[in-house]
Design a protein that fits this description.
Elements: H1 5-22, E1 25-32, H2 44-48, H3 52-55, E2 66-73, H4 77-85, E3 91-95, H5 96-108, E4 113-122, E5 129-133, E6 148-151, H6 156-167, E7 177-180, H7 183-191, E8 197-200, H8 204-210, E9 214-219, E10 227-234, H9 235-240, H10 242-261, H11 263-274, H12 278-285, E11 292-293, H13 299-311, H14 323-326, H15 330-338, H16 343-348, E12 373-377, E13 384-386, H17 389-401, E14 406-412, E15 419-421, E16 426-429, E17 435-438, H18 441-451, E18 454-456, H19 458-466
Parallel strand pairs: 1-2, 1-3, 6-7, 6-8
Antiparallel strand pairs: 3-10, 4-10, 4-11, 5-8, 5-9, 12-13, 12-14, 14-15, 16-17, 16-18
Helix pairs in contact: 4-5, 5-13, 10-11, 10-15, 11-12, 17-19
Length: 468
């Protein structure tokens, strides 16, 4: 090394050290709701598959930056909001109703948050539900007058319950006794018959059904009130680091693509992380799922947020929040563009994840989806699909005779077009032996009378299929 190059090298090393010393460490603190499984593409899957690291910006002003990615899991939206307002979290996912509380809390603190994407939802309103203990004689919401109903307070299920009770002509403040109860407390309470009814959000109504401790008597789809879960960001963080917000949304889009391609595989991953059975996860994330994964701000979801803000009044809370200024779709539009996706096309599409399958018995393509059914056997990586409920039940009998055991059996409500867990559904056998499924017993009875058929529970429907 010459005397000339030696000082040049020293200067270079000095500049490098200075740049390193001045390199920014950017905190990206993300609040998730792992057990709220339709938030999976905005949390659990991104974290477990390390998708955010793949998209974080590394050029321009981020060339020398390092990232401190922090993850924190919550069981509901309210405590997640508290930490966002306290500047302990930058990004968080929750439903429309707690999201309205989030925006209100930020404004009250002199700050602002933005709802930046939908993750999963239902323009029909499915996802929230009301259950009763398995042995309860109650079969409809109207029978809950004068009774005690528990619900996680300030949750989307709370908002649904208030609206549903009011739609029955009842006063939520006087005609029912609503108490607060988290899902992890409600499950044992239902099993021990310590509560008369419980309202909850994704996936707990179905989870309690699947575990045999409750029956769903009401689904949000009956109220025809759209609902969704999505992602919010603290306004200051979004304005300072818009590129990171877009990177997060690109990770969410990839998570969505992965679970769409292999819903059983990632339903298993969700079970591994949360303990929520894969069969329940698949009910939501599989083809024709109970809710639809959708990152676009459809008018129905904008309306859902406005309705949630109005519902705060039923709780005696006033909010200056306006849905039109709270929603910011610029980040998700940028993420779609960066990923080479067509946002406008998705915005116009209301299609669920399609079922592209052949009947497991006949091998023929399934083209009519009103009475399709599915069976997920223990030990099998994929769900078997059937063009008819009676075909599925007949095949189930054979599979069980051979030692097989179903981890999940799926049918679809004929009226509301929502996916159901068959063991808790009601059925009607018409004169031709064709089976149709229903969420509620009174709906099954009405349809049976209309078609001169017979209303059946799951066991009777299986027996009817045996007789075919």
């Amino acid at each position: 090394m010459t005397p000339i190059t030696r000082p040049l090298l020293a200067v270079a090393l000095s500049l490098s050290a200075l740049a390193s010393a001045n390199a920014e460490t950017i905190r990206v603190a993300i609040g998730t709701q792992d057990t709220t499984i339709n938030c999976a593409t905005g949390g659990l899957l991104i974290r477990e598959l390390r998708l955010l690291e793949k998209y974080l910006p590394r050029e321009g002003r981020y060339k020398d930056a390092s990232y401190d990615i922090q993850w924190k899991n919550f069981t509901s939206g309210a405590p997640l909001t508290n930490e966002m307002v306290a500047d302990k979290l930058d990004i968080g996912s929750m439903a429309d109703f707690p999201g309205a509380n989030n925006g209100t809390a930020f404004l009250k603190a002199g700050k602002q948050s933005f709802f930046i994407t939908v993750l999963s939802g239902s323009t029909l309103g499915s996802g929230n539900g009301v259950v009763v203990p398995k042995a309860s004689s109650i079969t409809s919401l109207s029978e809950l007058k004068g009774r005690t109903i528990s619900v996680p307070f300030a949750s989307t299920a709370h908002g649904m319950l208030l609206r549903a009770i009011a739609a029955q002509g009842l006063d939520p403040q006087k005609d029912v006794n609503i108490i607060t109860q988290a899902p992890e407390v409600a499950g044992p309470a239902l099993q021990a018959n310590k509560i008369e009814a419980h309202a909850d959000f994704v996936p707990f109504s179905e989870l309690f059904e699947h575990r045999g401790i409750a029956r769903k008597i009401y689904d949000g789809a009956q109220a025809s009130t759209p609902t969704y879960h999505g992602t919010l960001v603290a306004g200051d963080f979004a304005k300072k680091h818009p590129e990171i917000v877009v990177a997060f949304l690109r990770a969410a889009l990839e998570a969505d693509r992965l679970i769409a391609a292999e819903p059983e595989k990632y339903s298993e991953l969700i079970e591994k992380v949360t303990g929520i059975e894969a069969a329940v996860n698949y009910l939501y994330h599989g083809p024709l799922g109970l809710q639809t994964r959708d990152n676009s701000w459809k008018p129905e979801y904008r309306k859902a947020l406005a309705t949630s803000i109005e519902t705060l009044k039923l709780m005696g809370r006033e909010s200056p929040l306006k849905a039109e200024s709270f929603i910011d779709d610029s980040y998700i539009r940028a993420a779609f563009k960066a990923a080479g996706l067509d946002y406008e096309a998705r915005l116009k599409s209301y299609d669920k994840l399609p079922l592209k399958a052949h009947d497991a018995v006949t091998g023929k393509p399934i083209t009519d989806f009103q009475r399709v059914a599915g069976i997920w056997l223990l030990g099998e990586p994929k769900v078997r699909h059937y063009a008819s409920i009676e075909g599925a039940f007949a095949d189930l009998r054979k599979l069980e005779a051979e030692g097989g055991k179903a981890r999940g059996i799926y049918v679809h409500d004929l009226l509301h077009r929502i996916k159901l867990l068959a063991p808790n559904a009601w059925f009607v056998a018409d004169a031709k032996g064709q089976l149709s499924a229903f969420l509620q017993k009174d709906a099954a009875n009405a349809y049976a009378a209309a078609v001169k058929g017979k209303a059946l529970d799951f066991a009777a429907a299986q027996a009817a299929a045996k007789a075919l």
